[in-house]
Structure formats: C-alpha cells, structure tokens
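Possible regression after last week's pipeline update?

I re-ran a chain I had predicted before the update to compare outputs. Posting the input and the new output here so someone can diff against the archived version. Not blocking, just want to make sure nothing changed silently.
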Amino acid sequence: MARMLSILATRVDFIGTTSYSKGNNRAIFSAIARLISGYDSAQSIQELMLLPEGVIWSKVTEGHEGLLVDRFHVGLQTGNSEPLLMMPVSAISSMLQEVTQRFGSGGEMILYNQGKAYSLARFAAIKRGLGPNPETRLEEIAAMTCAAGWAIVKAKLEPGGNAIEFNNFECFECSTSKSRRSSCSFLRGMAAGLVEALFRKEVTSEETKCKGRGDEACTFIVKPRDGSPLGGALSLNRSAKVGKIEESEGTVN
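New output (post-update):
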C-alpha cells in the first residue's frame, strides 16, 4: 500500500482516505481525491494503482457535475461485520414520538421494553472485549455509548451502592427541534438493560428529569428491584466522565 501511495502522491490530492483489513493479508484502501494534473484521468489513475506488486484490483470513479457517488461500499458495518443503517437522529426521534402519540402509555411501555431488549443484546456483543469483570468498567461502556452517538452521559454510583444515576446531556429522544415528548422511555429501558446485564439483577429504572421538560439533562435512576446493593467494584471514581462532560470539585461544565 505504501508503494501505491507514493506513486499517487504527485498525481492526486487526497481529501479523505480509509483503509481496513479483510484478513488473510488482504486490505482495502479507498479515498476521495482531486486530480493535480490536467493530463491525468480516472482511467490513468486506475492503471497507476495496479502497478505496485500486491495490488489485486482497483477502480476509480469520476465525479459528475459536482456529485461524487461511492460505488464501491455497499453498506456500513461494525468491527464485528454487523450491518449498520444510517439514519438522521431527527428521523429516529420522530418515529419514537409517533409511537407514543398513537398508543399513549402503551407506546411508552413498548419503547421501554425495546430499549431494554436492545441493551441486553448489545451487551452480549460488547462484554467479550471487557474482560471477566465487565461490571467494573462502566466508564468504558458509557464511552462506547457516547461514541456510537446514543448519548453524552455521566454515570454516578449513589452513596451505599444502591443505585446508579445516569445523566444524559444530549438526548436524541426528546431534545430534537420537532420533539414534543417529555419522557425518554427507550433510553430509560437501555439504562435498565445495561445495569441488569452488568450486575445480573432485576432492576427498576425511573426518569426523574427530562430535557423535554426544560431540565439540563435527562436523568435515569436505576436500582435493584429487591432493594439490595448493586455490589461490584465499579471503576467510577464516584463518577464516570464521558465525552464533553468534565467534573471539577462537584461542578459540571
């Protein structure tokens, strides 16, 4: 790949690139680029890319009237080759709002159960990379949630270890411009599913504050249904700070 890039260095201006392994000593490289010389074409660059030893196949597609279409990739995938679907946050928020408008409290229950089921299933895929004691790594799990775009969250173990408080400062479920909701049942279910999976206990999950009601954050309190302590040596240092949230002597900025 290095040889191919050196050949192209004086011929194209790379705007964006990506590369990833396909296993068996094979890799894929793709890029968006601008021709430097007026003497080159999509065809000539494609032929240049085939010159280095080890390059199996190349394809260069030329844009048309300012529109450049990716004709190579057929869909997004996770690192575990799980297919992904890209959709605007506003569209997801509108879908959830429609469910609650149509079915009322029954819709809220549907969203809660779906959020909990998703979280439980997702944890099964995540926990393989968290080692034998994933309940001690809530901070990393919260960071994964942030990176995936679900939330910018701060998690805090309450005194006595009887509950975990999640504060979501960027809630897609209620805070989009078109949302008229004042509760976030899907994310409330996700919080419940995460804690149940971590501690293997049935829990209750309550939303005590909501950005849809004018609060600074959507707050979820998750605690064991039987009232017992959660247990586990959580890696929280009393609070897990994720994404844009920073804590200094009790002040959140």
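Follow-up from reviewer: compared with the archived run. The first helix runs from residue 2 to 8. Marking as no regression found.
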